[in-house]
Amino acid sequence: MTTGLKIKPADGKLGILTPGMGAVSSTFMAGVIASRRGIRLPIGSVTQMGHIRLGKRTDNRQPMVKDFVPLAGLDDIVFGGWDIFGDSIYEAAVKAGVLPLDLLNELKDELDAIKPMPAVFDNFYVKKLHGTHVKKGATKMDLAEQLMADMKAFQKDNGCSRLVVVWCGSTEIFLKVSDVHQTVESFEAGLRSNHPDIAPSMIYAYAAIKLGIPYANGAPNLSADIPALETLSKQTGSPTCGKDFKTGQTLLKTVLAPGFKARLLGVSGWFSTNILGNRDGEVLDDPGSFKTKEESKLSVLDTILQPELYPDLYGNLFHKVRINYYPPRGDNKEGWDNIDIFGWMGMPMQIKVDFLCRDSILAAPIVLDLALFLDLSKRAGFGGIQEWLSFYLKSPVTPQGLYPEHDLFIQQKKMKNTLRWMMGEELVTHLGREYYDDLSQDDR
Ligand SMILES: NC(=O)c1ccc[n+]([C@@H]2O[C@H](COP(=O)([O-])OP(=O)(O)OC[C@H]3O[C@@H](n4cnc5c(N)ncnc54)[C@H](O)[C@@H]3O)[C@@H](O)[C@H]2O)c1
Predict the structure, then answer these.
(1) What residue spans of 315-358 are helical by DSSP H?
(2) Taking CB atoms and a 6 Å cutoff, what residues make up the pocket around ligand 1?
(3) Which pTM does this prediction carry?
(4) How far is the CA of 354 from the centre of ligand 1 (A)?
(5) Mean pLDDT in runs of 10 for the chain (444 residues)?
């Protein structure tokens, strides 16, 4: 099979810039540095630890993903970003308390050298934070231009051949798509007139996309997923994807729900509650930021279970998500799920899940994989939404009229088939008729 795709090689250095250099960002950067020094494994990363089957099951071809597609190597990554606080990545990682201090101290020299650039920030969009390390500009367009200048200077100063931007900043308040978001022209006019519907994350997204740089959003807030930036990303050949890293409770939801649906077990209720005590938890304590997160978390079950097709099984599902800020836990979140299911003859059953998870430990490999795969997309000439990366995200973004796929296993198949397709390999359909063909037929 040939696709005629010409993927440029991953020559030179790749700069990964994160607006927001808190728990997730520092855990990601420290982890990559530890991995390239060979003192820890990059567990959870498909690009670093995954294999992909090629051809028939009898062919025995299962290369590592990183040996199959031309990805940037860990040694070629340079880190940077922006934050509203001036802490280095070492200081941010120590404050976040996710990775053990002895590991951070081993990496201190390198982590201390990664310092945030001053951020584009407005307390109106994240109520609980008050930053000091912040840019000034008369208009939002001025701020976008400052960010573009930062990106160009970072690329030049660090000798990078390419950049990727991954938003790891706090969750902003809930915004709806409005007129200013419709076209590139209306959006640029809105930047010049300081339109209130343009949040800081959109200014970063605009700056990256305008320069043709791939952009991913790790948080649930509206950012690149507006018509104006979707159009711009196609024009400039900047790959984007869905939003909100799929970790913790939602990751498990997208593992369990497809299982219930596959066996046609009904679900009458799904109550999810969380306690967490990191800065993310504090920000989500604000109702505006929580609403953004809630929308992202709630949409998952509906699209997996399809109540419109299965009203008897999922038509009356009561789904509730709570997030409670509880400082003693720090980044070590506890998420409880009570799932009320029913089976044969409507008989009720219950499942309880108590996940003592570490959010940033689950999010860090996603930042790495998204950055490397978006860079691959860019070199393959793909602009606009990369739906094949929905595997990593709570809120996949799709073209208008197409419902998003949330089932982790369908997402995984799509991602692997996209990689096979990119490299001109046969897609794996799992039909498997060929293993049962009568051998004598081959001889006919
Ligand atoms: N940890 C997870 O598993 C997970 C999963 C899904 C989504 N997320 C999202 O990822 C984001 C980061 O999570 P975290 O745990 O690292 O949070 P965090 O609070 O530790 O870090 C966020 C950082 O962003 C900075 N920030 C806020 N607004 C900014 C701006 N406009 N420009 C630059 N910096 C800005 C804050 O100062 C902070 O340092 C959050 O939005 C969170 O909801 C995290």
Answers:
(1) none
(2) 19-25, 82-85, 96, 119-121, 126, 129, 168-171, 200, 218-219, 244-245, 247-248, 278-280, 283, 359-360, 362-363
(3) 0.95
(4) 24
(5) 84 98 97 97 98 94 98 98 97 96 98 98 91 95 98 98 98 94 98 98 98 97 96 98 93 95 98 87 80 78 94 96 89 92 98 94 98 98 96 92 91 97 94 76 48
